[in-house]
User: Fold DUF3533 domain-containing protein from Streptomyces venezuelae.
Amino acid sequence: MTSAIPPNTPSTQGPQVRAAALARNPKLWLVPTVLSAIVAVGLALLYMGGILNPNENLHRLPVALVDEDRGAPLPGQRENLGKQITDAIVASGPSKNAVDWRRLDRAEAQDALASGKVFGALVVPADFTASVAALTTDRATVRPTLTVLTNPGLGSLGSSLTAQINQRAAHQASLTIGKQLSATTDLATTRLLLTDPVAVTTEVGHPIGRHSGLGLTAFYYTLLLVLGGFIGGNLVNSGVDTALGYADSEIGPWHSRHPTVPISRTQTLILKMLMTAGISVLTTTLVMVATIAILGMDASHLPMLWIFSYCATVAVGLGVQAINAAFGGIGQLVSMFVFIALALPSSGATVPLEATPGFYRFLGVFEPMHQLSSGVRSILYFDARADAGLARGWIMIAVGVALALAFGLAMTHYYDRRGLRRLTPQPA
Assistant:
């Protein structure tokens, strides 16, 4: 039943309605106008609301604080400078709620960096008090140093924010120490040095590959997986409906309509889900070939990456099928908000969730892209460690698949029991 209908066939003869006449009907404008406005405003608020003020929205950003200072206290003081500095940083008012300072030793801090549990670290070296004490003598030649460690695997913005926080804390500590010591010496050169006595060096605490997009490849790779599942699921949905005769197919002027296959909603959903799982094998493989083999993206643990990628794509695809089966014509819009519009700004992959308003941190608890990006990040940057987000990623994939199956099958079974057919079958 495929044909290009000529303009003067009997099916098109008779008075024709003109577009200008229809355009004057306000009811025709109402639904698309309202939906377009809601989508535009919603997307603008969602995407821009999470990125405008990362510094002002900081909430318990995890940062390691390492005190290795083993020097004796300076004269007249009960504790060495390392202990004084770290205590002051933790107790500081402005950053008390913004930063989650975690007191760790060097080995614990390195492990936290390697598992993505902290965005960076501030390290007070073992000779810090001794090197500060030397400044008040004529042997002052080298400035004491505090070290800032970054974690680019958690994203360039998160690593940069943490580095700025650590540098400000170190600079404030330097000024405080300078005020305390300036009155203890009469040497002009030393007094000048003591106005800001501590140097700050920045080093990479946990390095990642050169072809890792400064820590952004995990986000964009996850986005590919989600888009693959989302687009693939909708293509399967429309393709199956067309093949079974429940939707028309139009390509340019060519229109086709297949005979309607008598099939229940439940069986249709099962077919679509099976096809989604099968086609995802191809899409996942091609995504990996394109990003790793062709573009040269740094990636380790390739078997694990492929299995996780496939399961992630399938979970999204099954979710799309369940939503389409439940909501019908607006299913694509609903699934777009669930898997794209709400998921992107709450992913925490570009802007840390700790630097976003509370609404986005709430979405990050269950929105799929945050869970999937944590798993991908663990595989790409953190040696596929379970405690770096991989375990949570697997758990949320399992939960997502279970919810998609339960929700989709429950809704189609309900519709079938109520006798709610999709449309009247068309004969061949």
Notes: Strands lie at 2-4, 61-67, 99-103, 120-124, 145-150, 199-204, 249-251, 254-256. The first strand starts at residue 2 and ends at 4. The chain has two domains: 61-204, 213-417. Residues 213-417 form one domain.
